[in-house]
Each structure stands twice: as C-alpha cells, then as structure tokens.
Amino acid sequence: MTITAALLALARPRWLSLLVIGLCLSHATILLTRVPHWGMPFLTLAWMGLGYTFRWGSPGPASRSAPPRKWPWALLPIALWGLYLYLAQSFGIVDLSAVFFHLQAGMADHGGVSRIGAAFFYTLSMAALLVSFTWLIRHDHRWRRGEPLLALVLLVSNPLLYGMGQRGAAIVTKPGAWLERHYVEPVLLESPRDPPNLLVLYLESIERTYADRERFGDAYAILDQLGERGLVFEGIQQVDNTGWTMAGMIASQCGTPLMPAGLLHDRQFSPLDKVVPGVDCLGDLLSAQGYRLTYMGGASVNFAGKGLFYEGHGFDNVLGREELQPRLDDPEYVNNWGLYDDSLYDYSLEELRHLNAQDGPWGLVTLSLAGHAPYGYPAQACLDRQGEFDGVDILFSVECSTWLARDFLARAEAEGLLDDTLVVIASDHLTMRVSAWEQLIEGERDNTFILLGPGIPQGRQRREASMVDAFPTILEAMGFTIDWHRAGLGVSLLSDEPTLLEEHGAEFFNARMREEIVLQERLWEGLAPPSQAPEEEVIQEQVVETPEDATGEEPAQVQ
User: Fold this and answer.
1) What does the pLDDT look like over 451-472, one tens digit per residue?
2) What are 495-504's pLDDT values in tens digits?
3) Would you say domain 178-543 falls under CATH 3.10.20.340?
4) How far apart are CA 32 and CA 21, in angstroms?
5) Which Pfam families match (predicted)?
6) Neighbouring residues of 345: CB distance < 8 A, sequence distance ≥ 6
C-alpha cells in the first residue's frame, strides 16, 4: 500500500474516530497519572493497535446488531469527565468547594483570561470526542451493547459527582458535630498596654515548598534570608477548604476552613451579600480594640467576595483594582488580574505613611499577584532586575514576588514606618498547576508562615499544623491573651498546646469537614434556612455522639 493510500485509509470515519478517542484517552491518562507527556503518542498508537486488532468500528453481522439509539447513554458522563479534566489541568487539584464558593460569591472581574484559550480548545476537543464516540457506538454492535455499563462506570467514578454526592449526604443526614465542638469562640481576655501595629503580607501561591534548593534553586532564597530575622514555622499543611485565596485568608484570619454556603444558602440563585457572617475574625477583634484597618490588593475586590469579607469584618478601607488603577501614572500598566506588585507596594507604602500619621494602632493586609498560577505576573521592576521572562517559568515569578516583598519592607523600615509592628509573611495557599508542578508534588508541601517584629524570637519551629492555627498565633504574637491559646479551630503555635492536626491528623480533620455541616451552619448564620428539627432533637444532637463521631478523646474544655 502506498503512503497516499495509507493516508486515505486513515482519513476514513472509522480511523478518524478511533484517533480522536485515542488522543483524548492518552491526554487524560497523562493528566491523571505520572506518565510523562512524551508518552502520549505511544499511548495513542497502542489504542489504535487495539482498534486494528479487534476491528473496532467495523459493522458486525446484521443478526447480532441491535438498532442503534440516536444518542449514546455515555455522552453526558464523558462530557462531565471533560469538565473535570479541564479543571484538573487548570488547577492541579480540583476543589469542589472552591467551585461552589466562587459561583455564589461572584466571579466578576477575574483575571483568568489566559484560560479562555484552553477552555475553547477543550470545548472543541470534547465536541470531536462526542461525535467520534457516537459514530463508534452506531457502527460497532460490540461497543453498543457494552456502552450502558460504560456510561454507569464513567458516571460513578467521576470525582466531581462523588464529591457532590458526599456533601449532599452530609446535608441530609447531618451526622456529628466534632468540628463545632472543637470551635472556640475567639475572645481577647487581656490586651497589651501598648498594642503593636500589624502588617500582613499575603504572597500569592508562594508556598514554603519552594525553599528546597535542590528542586527550585534560589527562587525562595530571599524569604529564607528574611526568616533568619524572625520566627519561621515549617510544616503548615493545607487542609481541605483552605486551598484558594479567600479560603486561605479566612483560615488564617478566622481560624476555620471556608466551608461554602452551598446548599445551605437559602437564596440559591442570588449572590452572597455577606461572607462568613457567623464568626468573629481578626478584623472584628482588632477593630473592637481601636485599630484602623486597611486591605489592599491588586485584583478586584469584587472577585470571590473579598470586599464583602473585609468590609463585613471590621476593615475601614478596602482597596483593589477599581480604587488603585486610577492612581497609576500609566493606567495601562496592569495585568489580567490587576495591578502589578511594584505598583501595589508603592501604594501600600503611601498607606503606611497615612496610618502612621494618625493616633492609635493600625493594621494593613496586602495580597500580591506575582506568583499567581499558571505562569505568574512578574512586575517591570523584576524584569529590570532579573532579565527577560520567558512567560512560563514560575520560579522567575516566585523570585520576583519574594524580592518585591523584601524591598517593600526595607523601604518601610528605612522610613521608620514599622516601628513596634508585627510583620506576618504568609502564602494564601499552596500553588495550583504551574511549570514546576511535577517537582512540587514529589514530596510533602507546606505553606509559608513567618513572623517578624519586636519580641519575636529568631529560629524555626516544625509543627504539624494548618493555616487555621495562624489566627491564634498572630493574636498571641501581638501580645493578646486568648482562652487556652485557642481561637476558632486553631491553636497558637507559640504555645505548647497540641494542634488538632497533631492530635488527630489531617486525614481525620478533612473527613469531618466532608461529613459535617454544623460548623458550616455557624459560618453562614443568617444565610441558612432555619432548621426544621424540633428543639429537643437539636439539644440531643449537641450532647450525644454517634459511633462514627466518637474519637475517644476527652471532651474539649476550652469553651
């Protein structure tokens, strides 16, 4: 057979359909396993070889062939798997809670423009796959007979549907209240005579995992140097419902994972007008102590409820892209999300001058953008310092983020703006899929959490903890006395009290979040429909543990 004849043979619907299905299957295999990208053509060829051997797509004897249905049962399950694969490629780890929260809190003014092209490509690929699969089912009685079972397997194995089913079951059965019983209302028992100021720098996605120089070189070296001046916490894990920006900030400021309102929200098709209104957070406590509080971020405060959260929890000024972009000398010097970090830190320095010029303590929280997945947004100041950016290497952006943070602190210290100030440097969450993804997931990962300032000892502590423990740690580092060194679900890492992860482990902690909604109802108090259960049943549920809920530990005595 000549080459031309072979190409014409491959152009037939049978082989085109098998090729499309093989390419999609090999892509999914690479995405969900550790098979390297260069293995894709080999997987596709293996699929084509099976098709040739078993003559897939060739019509069988008429007597054995049932009349084909107009549409296969598996089309919807395949499409749902396509959605899951798109989310997995975009974010690395698919977090259903993040999806639910953003749908209700608002996705306007997001900066994910870079993913539009990928979404368009996925849509075309899925259309081609569905057409190819439909052709195969209609022309091969063997596939047609087994297709209903395939549809069922695809449906029940999809992590999206599994997670939704698990949460739905929790809402219906409402088992246990372990998290709620371990939640400690944050109360300031005593305050320092001269309370310090507070500066919190959230470095987008700059996890401490980057400190491994064997894997990532000097990308994180600047933060390592900064950490030598204060206290560095290692081992700060990412538990469920803390893996995106708003969730990370709420965990570290409220002491609880962000369990989205979800089906508890009694206005399912209306956007949220409050974010975790049922708990007191860092801003609430400091505002009551007379602090003047400001939040500043380069991205829009309308995205994911950032503005709602800070305005509803004690902050006087909430400044994002809409408020800061008009101040730029060049209004076009922005990225998909908003202001570059060099511009943000310039305006943050101005805010520090303004806050220091007034009486009373202050707090400033900033959120950077340079490290945002998938490639980062290095500022022009970094390009001038580090050279040309290839548009892909996330380590370039990591170094940029750390250098800009250190430069900002150096300028503020030179002006005396950080005297008597606790400085907190933290990642908002672990990074999502980036160019260094395979290296990042080789081992355990942890978040950045560094304390600098007067009275903070120098050194490193390794604790089995999570970002919920940052909340009471910050309060005690500021000199406040809190009940049993606890606030929310967190335990101060400056104390000897064991954290919930040290006592029970992350797996158990995460399992309780998947199976309980009582703490979730507390978070969204006022937004959830009133309980229909009789009062006697509610009281009994708070006292009696189910066998699944029992842990064997002594009851918490910190309430």
Assistant:
1) 999 999 999 999 999 999 999 9
2) 999 999 999 9
3) no
4) 16
5) Sulfatase
6) 366, 404, 405, 407, 408
